[in-house]
Amino acid sequence: MPKKKEYDHKHLSTSQRIHIEKGLNDGLSFAAIARKLDKHPSTIAKEVKKYRTLQPREKDPKKPARCALFKECSLRFLCDKKDCVKMCKSCYDVKLLVSKCSYLCSEYREPQCASISKAPFVCNHCARQRTCNKEKAYYIAQNADQSSQELLVSCRQGINQAPADIAMLDTLISPLLAQGQSLAHIYAFHGHEIPCSRKTLYNYIDQGVFTAKNIDLRRKVRYKCKPRKTGTRVSLAAKEFPIGRTYEDFQKFIQENPDIPVVELDTVEGGRDNSTQAFLTIFFWNCTL
Hints:
It comes from Hungatella hathewayi. Pfam families: HTH_38. Residues 9-50 form the Transposase IS30-like HTH domain. There is one protein chain. By secondary structure, the chain is α+β, with helices and mostly antiparallel strands. Among the domains are: 14-57 and 117-152, no CATH class; 58-109, no CATH class; 163-222. 32% of the residues lie in helices and 8% in strands. The strands form 3 sheets. The chain has a two-stranded antiparallel sheet. A two-stranded antiparallel ribbon has the order 2-3. A two-stranded antiparallel ribbon has the order 5-6. The model has no long low-confidence stretch (mean pLDDT 83).
């Protein structure tokens, strides 16, 4: 019996999202992209559908698009001509180049492209991008990565406790702090009744969740507030630059193209002790010069 393949089940990284965008631009399927990234195809499909960027159609009130129900529509008598027995979709406006029912019918529906309602859910590889007047969707790695990071931050904010648990903790902790007991002492004796860590209790007091405030903590008012460190994330362009430019890519290219002459350019720097001198070396593989 073949073993079931196991995946890492980790969040997608920035470089992986860049590969997804490149694969969609090249017209690859979700399965082909998933094989390159060692992910399940459903992971790629959910990622694309969740973090795609929708681009609404530029609506022109003077020239609406053809209704999505045009083929099966059989409505009549939408206009003032009561003696007309033709279906309204057959009446054509020569100036606007659209059926008159498109701006007369109350059941008019905007047309939707089938490409964004089923796989691949985006228009990255569509050949009709310029001529299509329907709503479009694109997967952009930078936007997807930013939306994912914002979601990770927002879902970890706030208080992860039920209102009943907060009320119970307030009833337990605030009176003891008012009596002069420290939070460490309270946690040591009542830790089995508290459903969170001591650090979380300090955060709740600092956020004003309990009746007790920071001033009720004797040593807290003496501490100097330290500036919060902000993480320095590497830009998307910096992560995208090495793709296809590593030494492994160079070796792979040489193996696939053995007949192409190779020339190596290297910069030799001087000493590291405040030296600004350097020279360029050129090495020809075919003649070892």
